[in-house]
Amino acid sequence: MHISSRAARSLACLLLLSTASFPPVFAQEAAAPVAPAASVPWLYRGSDVPPDLEWKFGELSNGLRYAVRQNGVPPGQVSIRIRVDAGSLYETDEERGYAHLLEHLVFRQSKYLEDGTAIATFQRLGASFGTDTNAETSATQTVFKLDLPNATRTSLDETFKLLSGMVTAPTLSAENLRADVPIVMAEMRERGGAAQRVQERMQEVFYAGQPLAERLPIGTVKSLQGATQDSVRAFYKRWYRPENVVVIVAGDAQPAQLEAYVKKWFGTWQVRGTSTPAPSFGDPVAPAAVAPASAGAASPIGRTEVMIEPDLPPSITYATLRPWREVNDTIVYNQGLMIDALAQAIINRRLESKARRGGSFLTAQVNQQDVARSADGTFVSITPLGDDWRPALRDVRAVIADALTRPPTQEEIERELAELDVAFQVPVEQRRLLPGSKLADDLVNALDIRETVASPEAVLRIFRESKPLFTPAAVLEHTQQLFRGTVTRALFITQKKGAATNEALRQALVEPVKPDQQVRMAEGPPVSFDTLPAIGEPGQVTSVQNTGLLGIQQLSFANGVKAMLWPVQEEPGRLTVKVRFGGGYREIDPKDAPYITLGQMALVGSGLATLGQDDLDRIATGRKLGFNFDVKDAAFEFSAETRPADLADQLYLFAAKLDMPRWDEQPFERAKAAAKIQYATFATSPQGVLNRDLQFYQRGKDPRFQTPKPAEIDGTTPQGFQRVWEEALTSGPIEVQIYGDFEPEKAVAALQRTFGALEQRDPAPVQRGTAAIAVPEPSDETIVLKHHGDLDQAAAVISWPTGGGSTALAESRQLEILTQLFTNRLVDAIRERLGVSYAPYVFATWPVDLAAGGSITAMAQLQPDKVPLFFSTADEIAQDLITNPPTPDELTRVIEPLRQQVTRAASSSAFFMQQLEGATTDPSRIDSLRTILTDYTQTTPAAMQALAARYLGREKSWQLAVMPETTAGKVMRK
């Protein structure tokens, strides 16, 4: 069965079984007999899992397999996946990177697509490049993806034709190689840096002696530069064969129709020669001279290594590895996975409890993974605090040692079972909302790990029928199995030379530890919403107004709180709550800027009413409750996805945070440690520096948008944290949005007891900060920032300020059309023609709540000496958009994907929820929503030219470059 992102083997590990009926598992004395191969679909052969009847499986005479199903989410879309059973582990030493290179070449030119026309062709069909049209290569597979919007018989037939030509008859010419190898090399360069070095070293250490240790999908410079037409064609001929390909289709069309397209366009694919068996991926091997096994585990210590990366946070990862073997995907097998998931969840909750108390580590986690069909591993990851890493490793191992020597309590098991039950029940409730793209991707992942797929209903039923299996003894046994293996290996990333040695790390893994019993869940009185203090007297609804839009109603309460309610019967089980309050960034005094970052990390965890962080976890057990917090330009926001049964309690949590906040210090201190650790990582790459500083420069160097430095974090105090956020929680207007599956009467009653019961609030946001909105001044001088990463990495940014506010939303949407025109031209110039950047892009921002502050921004990662070329190319494109209107075909390639994006998004209440944020105080947002489709899709070449003239141009822009630290001199703009 497919384990969703098998990398975690946790909450989603049970999306396994189908809807077909069968006896309860405990009525069986043994596993159900496996059906004869000829009588079951190909995916389920060798398995006793009943097939999911919503999928129609088939095989063509040439060996190609397929699976199709009907799905109407979103309406009109058909998702196509073509999976080739060949990734980087299928390459020879000389072919490293060929599987990924082929992914690019297939898009370059093929039987029905001329050289370089694929992007434009799919855009004309309404598919956006990079989102609707994409591909990916891993160690074990290559997958081509297309989400076709507004699918008709004509567009589907054309799409299958194009995709079939790409996969069955790519050109793979020397000219194609000359065009695509520089793009792949640019991708390799942009993926480099400290994080990539760590990934490579981790593979070398953990999978030593196996192909995976040296088989990154991106390949090597030598093998890519040495690729020839003949060598690439040889790799294609060896692996791109019908028997290695599966076509998966899920979407808004009849299965018979989808099946017909597969047969029509892939049925005639014939290849010569015999099939090549897949290569061996090898097994983890124990060292010849073994160190003693770590405490409580039966696994000898193998390779341990210390790696110095000055700009990365210290981290320790050790893995107990076992050989991976393809399994018979049976019910009994999956029941074992359920117990594995319980075992990991219990340990991870104990580790989190240990971290919350303060001490030696910031975070730690246990995670079982099946890795690239090469190893079955149990990974332990730790982020130590302070310079001495040994206590962190010892403390984590002590928690694990306790789990290995004593069974958990039944109370601990019941708590995790309650969480799993909710995790499996929610997909059942929201089954009708599952998009076809996800269903197709889930089947791709199942094929990759050689398992089956199933329905949410069956998952929930089997899970509940299996509960008698989940005993303390069984969890103990599976915990011991998770830490038993062929070998244990470890990698320690440290910032300081001399902090550790390979041998010291080895000794720390084998030294005895005393089991830590203190973090087991203590038995105590249950935490219940019934025992929490009331917020106040229920408030009165003073007005109910119909917005005139889709049945959305606006309520006003006597205390000034306003709410927007939209019950949506078409979204069963999905319910979202948002609460906007206060003044956001503009409310915070610039001198208090560091508290913004700390608040985003720690405000929720600081508790409310009588509940601390652990209590909040306990009270949410078995419930679907959330508590996200975000700071926006002119408002703070709580948000959560919940269920109809939990709506009243979700509203209480949000309202109580405003009315009865707690100020526990430990979450604040932990947030300080995390912020300081994170800061150092930004300087490791150009993208990291942009993540740290770009918004600061885009907002005219407003300190509230600057990532706080460690010294600034050190200057904060618990008292200052409480002062800043207590003021934010208690001031400014409140707007509540409830959209989705709920009963209006119950929702209004819950609002009266919670937000309606709050004390009267000032309807205007408090503006303690600077009211003026800073905008960067145009300049020919380039802002130069430095990074500590690879010397061949740089980033270039050029930005044109635009505007903001709700009164000009129509223009902001037209700017999105202009931005997409710019993106297409930039990709064609910088990526396709010059090959200097893998993913240049242009994006627009428009702060709806502020009168200014928006921008059009173009950026790319590239080699340092190509930064001036990027600036000149972007300037040329901008000037050409001013001088010459776009062609009608250019507009079609932009407008049709935008039309489809808006149409698909509008099929969900979440889209309207986002668009109408702030509408209770600014009703113009309701009217602007009525024109959103026309604003994004109706324009003229002359209108685009006029818009470009208004906002673009060299004299209106400013620019920024992120260069290697050793680079000297200015970055000139030609």
Question: What distinguishing features does this structure have?
Answer:
single chain, 974 residues, alpha+beta, Cytochrome Bc1 Complex, Chain A, domain 1, 4 domains, seven-stranded mixed β-sheet, six-stranded mixed β-sheet, 30 helices, 23 strands, 16% strand, disordered N terminus, Pept_M16_N, Peptidase_M16, hydrolase, zinc
The amount of helix comes to 25-40%
Uncertain spans, ≥5 residues at pLDDT below 50?
3-35, 293-297
Overall, the morphology is: globular
User: Domains counted in the coordinates: how many?
Assistant: 4
Count every helix, treating DSSP H or I runs of 4 or more residues as helices.
30
Q: Which strand-content bin applies to the residues? A: 15-25%
Report on this model:
With 974 residues, this protein is an alpha+beta fold. The chain folds into four domains: 204 residues, Metalloenzyme, LuxS/M16 peptidase-like (Cytochrome Bc1 Complex, Chain A, domain 1); 191 residues, Metalloenzyme, LuxS/M16 peptidase-like (Cytochrome Bc1 Complex, Chain A, domain 1, 2-Layer Sandwich); 229 residues, Metalloenzyme, LuxS/M16 peptidase-like (Cytochrome Bc1 Complex, Chain A, domain 1, 2-Layer Sandwich); 183 residues, 2-Layer Sandwich (Cytochrome Bc1 Complex, Chain A, domain 1), CATH 3.30.830.10. The protein is 38% helix and 16% strand. It has 30 helices and 23 strands. The strands form four sheets. It has a seven-stranded mixed sheet with strand order 12-13-14-18-15-17-16, sandwiched between helices. Strands 1-2-6-3-5-4 form a six-stranded mixed sheet, with helices on both faces. The chain has a five-stranded mixed sheet with strand order 7-11-8-10-9, with helices on both faces. Strand 12 and strand 13 form a beta hairpin. Helix 2 crosses helix 26 and helix 11 runs antiparallel to helix 13. It is globular, with a radius of gyration of 29 Å. The N terminus is likely disordered. This is Insulinase family protein.
